[in-house]
Amino acid sequence: MKRSHWAEPYKIKMVEPLRKTSPEERKKLIAAAGFNTFQLKSADVYIDLLTDSGTSAMSDRQWAGMMLGDEAYSGSRNFFHLEEVVQQYYGYRYIVPTHQGRGAEHLISRLLIRPGMYVPGNMYFTTTRLHQELAGGNFIDVIIDEAHDPDSVFPFKGNIDLQKLEAVIQQVGAANIAYLSLATTVNMAGGQPISLDNMRQVRRLTQQHGIRIIHDMARVAENAFMIQQHEPGYEHKTVAAIVKEICALTDGAVMSGKKDALVNIGGFLALNDEGLYEEAKNLVIVYEGMHTYGGLAGRDMEAMAIGITESVEEAHIAARVYQVHYLGNLLKEAGVPVLNPIGTHGVFLNARTFLPHIPQTSFPAQALTVALYETGGIRSVERGIVSAGRNKETGDHHYPSLELVRLAIPRRVYTLSHMDVVADTIIDAYENRFNIPGLAFTLEPKYLRFFQARFEQLALQTAPIA
């Protein structure tokens, strides 16, 4: 009988020891951290799935490139290499480096949003929406309804609902829309891709009304891979070709190089409009640094340029997504409630179904992150009501339809054996789910509260919510 096994398409040449703590230690450590996994020390975490941002393992080629860093204050040769790579693989004409993706979000918000304007998009992301709001904008969600249904298996839940978008245009007027914020592989929806067919329809509609599309492209290669696998007509196209086709349907992009580009720090703003680029060049000097380094060392830009070329290699991107799906399928087979279909950068647990006894106002997803750490030292992140924040008009919570725990898998860091351990931990927590209590705030920061908030545990409530 022929057997077929899968192996990671790389070999390990350096290791970092992991430390296991006891359940008793972990209970004390998470309590001292205010029941917020962001406040844990990394040394106290066994398997860290808090984020895939800046946590990937760089390749030997990237480390070699770090030695070629040109640390000139202006005109670094690494900038011109990065610019060349962006033009080659993404097709954008101009780039402005930033220290990370949110630096680019800040710049584009300052450049395009005037107070009172609107920014429709395919579901919010935390830092993106905050920059838009701080610039005086109002985010409007125009993603398809399937994206809000954790049980829907529609393969392109990142798609934009054209009727919703057209209704926004008719209601507020195209002149009052700063731009369309279009994300590839929508993070808050569970790493869900958008189809090229949908993007082309969106492009036609926005061009009719003179509305720019700004692309959140942090995980564009992952989206391209899902198009290759699931969209008819693209099964024989390379990921690199699909990536360039995606970018060609947009006017500019914000990029966190800490995701697809496989670096620990860095990002950029990419543009096609020369006049807007000149404004961005001037503004970046105020907040980041010279327009040829933007808060980065030359070595960081070199590593990012090399990482972009590696991000579209077929073996790499297939293995990256396969590892995520391996974990997701283990959990589904065990009956653990996860968001469907499995996305590209992580597995998302459906906390509403996992913890039916905890009301949303007692933060079930946050409570589940605590339980996973206490059970097996696994660090994850809440993507529900805590991350959604408060309505700037009413002061009440935003109440998202999805209450999720994200298990974001760093690229090229863990093996399938680590995924087996993660699955065992989650299954154990699920079997003991009615022993998990809800939470209440003891400290609630004004901005992006999920990073620094602190909580206390509530009395245990075991009866499911009616």
TrEMBL record:
Cofactor: pyridoxal 5'-phosphate
Location of the Aromatic amino acid beta-eliminating lyase/threonine aldolase domain: 48-424
Keywords on record: Lyase, Pyridoxal phosphate
Stored Pfam families: Beta_elim_lyase
Xref: InterPro entries: ArAA_b-elim_lyase/Thr_aldolase, Beta-eliminating_lyase, PyrdxlP-dep_Trfase, PyrdxlP-dep_Trfase_major, PyrdxlP-dep_Trfase_small, Tyr_phenol_ly
Reactions performed catalytically: L-tyrosine + H2O = phenol + pyruvate + NH4(+)
GO terms of molecular function: tyrosine phenol-lyase activity
Organism domain of life: Bacteria
E.C. no: 4.1.99.2
SUPFAM superfamilies, A to Z: PLP-dependent transferases
The family this protein is said to belong to: Belongs to the beta-eliminating lyase family.
Name the UniProt record assigns to this protein: Tyrosine phenol-lyase
Organism: Chitinophaga qingshengii
